[in-house]
Description:
Blueprint: E1 5-6, E2 10-11, H1 13-34, H2 48-57, H3 59-73, H4 75-78, H5 86-105, H6 107-114, H7 116-142, H8 146-162
Antiparallel strand pairs: 1-2
Amino acid sequence: MVEVTQPGRGPSQGRRIALVLLGTAALVVLSWGSVALGTPTVITPHSAVISVPYQIAGPVVAFSIIPAVFFLWNLGAMRGRRRLPRRSMALFTVVAVSSLTLLLMDWQRGAQEQGMLHMMGILAENAFFIGFLVLRASRSRRERSFQNTYVFHLALFAWIAWCAFPHIGSAPLAN
Length: 175
C-alpha cells in the first residue's frame, strides 16, 4: 500500500484516522491486560483507572473508558493538527505526580504484602513511561508532526490504562 501524504503534512487524513482507530483497539487489549490475572502482578498491575470501573460496572465499561477518551482526545490530530496540546502536558503532569505520590505513599504496605521486587518492578514501569513521555514531549515540541503527537498520546494512554495508579495490596479483583 502506498502512503499518501501532503508535503510537510505527514500521513493523509485516512491514514491518521486508521492509526487512531488502531491505537484505540490496542488500548482495549491493554486495558484488559492490566487486570487479566485475578491478582496484581508486575505484568498485570491492575491500574485503578481500569480495576475500579471493572469492579463497579463490569469489563465492558472498564475496557472502554481509556480507549474512548484516547479517541476523543485525538480528534484534532485526526484532522491534521500537529502540535502537542497543552492539555496533554497538563494530563501527563497530573498523572505522573499523582501516580508516583500514591505509589510512594503505599510503598511500605506494598513491600510487605507484595514484596520489594514487585514494588521495584512497578516503580520501574512507571519511571520508564514517565521518561519516555518526557522525551516524546520534548521531540514533539521540536518537531511538530502527527507522528510525534500520536506516539506521545498512545504512550500516555497506554501508561494510564496499564500501570499508572497501580493496585497496591494482595486483594484479588471481585468478579
